Amino acid sequence: MDPIAHVPLAAGPAYLERIQRLPSKFGATLKPEPDNRFNLAAVAVYAAGEKIGYLPPDVSRHYAGALPEGGADCQGRRAPPSAHENTGVDVLLDLSGVPCEG
Question: What are the structural domains of the chain?
Fold first, then answer.
């Protein structure tokens, strides 16, 4: 699988306030959550020391097993308000430097 440059974050209402506090561009850390009861290949996304959501399941399955034990860093940016209104997307991540499985 080729690295993905702009991945929408799966972030529900519980994370919206945390996301709104982030600057327009920020660093994020991806951490696998193998004990997640909903998705064994879940990858949580952290920014500013707080969880802000998850990679979508169809994307996380390519990354969960390839991430180093402490996670991997990537760049993120907040999506414009119009993106939230039209698609529900609040954050885009650049995974181009993150290890993934084929």
Answer: 7-94 (3.30.70)
